[in-house]
Amino acid sequence: MSRVLTVLAHGDSDGVASAALVVAALGRRYGTVDVRFTHPVGLLSDFREFARGDVVIVDIALSEAHATAIAREFSRYPFNITYIDHHPPPVGLSLKELNVELVRPKDGEDVSSSELTYRKYSGLLHPDYDRVALYGAIGDYADQSPWVKEALERWDKRQVYFEAGILVQGLEGSRGMHDFKRHIVEHLSRNRRPSQLSELLVRALIQAVNNEELHAWVEKNVKVVGRVAYVINPPGSISVAATYAKGVTRSPVGIAVEERGNTYVMSLRANSKEINLDRVLREVTPHLGGSGGGHPSAAGARIPKHQFMKLIQVLNERLGWVGGED
């Protein structure tokens, strides 16, 4: 029986670039390589459903709600698991309890999962694959590390950022299209540029137009409570809408919400000098019946709809706003 490799990846540019590097480095060692896209809340169920043979997990944060169950699931799994991620660890669980091969940032490092993946497998990759890792790092706002700066010296920086922009915008315009994202992973795993994939390029151009329309919509519909700006059900990317909500109101925190039944799925953006979104969401959302986390200035959360204003209240408290004038 041929060997099987399962890659579980986040569906953004960092996750897609990381998955492509894994496929490029390890693909020839396996008869079957299955790439699946997941997220922190869905990792446990997706691991149970899709994991076959050796598993590499890239760019998926562990949520507090499922961390203990995931650790148990990993401990029972009969094949090798490699877990590559740059998100802060979950509160209340030591990552050593996962009983997997961990690839994590060193203390004090602010790096992308794609940079970590390239470091891990660089001995199996042509040096030019550093370009794929750069796409992921740029797309995840992790482009200030010493490795990124050194790697950019090998390329025309303008061209790399252009290609990274196409990947980011094209993926935003491909939400939920997992088969197409797998095609992008295959494309990048051959070290082909994003601009060489015509459908991705077209989707990026369409997304650029949509983002301009989204900006105008946010300007008309954004609401501000204290030092937090938010929009609900924007007609486009919630991550982009959260950035626009913060920007057009000059607020420290912007939130964009997608309503799914009785649940609010949201993206948050912040000025990291004023608040650490990852820390706040990991501490607070479990008490609100949800989950959340990510990075200090860019994070996501899911909470019951009726708890939304409570979350905004907590964010304002952490920002030092107690009512009245800012």
Which features would summarize this protein structure in a list?
326 residues; alpha/beta; inorganic pyrophosphatase (n-terminal core); Diaminopimelate Epimerase, Chain A, domain 1; 2 domains; 6-stranded mixed β-sheet; 5-stranded parallel β-sheet; 12 helices; 11 strands; 43% helix; globular
What does this 3D model show about the protein?
It is a single chain. The protein has 326 residues and is an alpha/beta fold. It folds into two domains: 198 residues, Alpha-Beta Complex (inorganic pyrophosphatase (n-terminal core)), CATH 3.90.1640.30; 97 residues, Diaminopimelate Epimerase, Chain A, domain 1 (Roll), CATH 3.10.310.40. The chain has twelve helices and eleven strands. A six-stranded mixed β-sheet has the order 6-7-8-9-11-10, sandwiched between helices. The chain has a five-stranded parallel β-sheet with strand order 2-1-3-4-5, with helices on both faces. β10 and β11 form a beta hairpin. α1 runs antiparallel to α5 and α9 crosses α10.
Summed up:
The chain has helices at 13-26, 43-50, 67-76, 113-121, 130-139, 146-152, 157-172, 178-189, 198-221, 238-249, 277-284, 308-318; strands at residues 4-9, 32-37, 54-58, 81-84, 101-103, 223-225, 228-232, 253-260, 263-270, 291-294, 298-304.
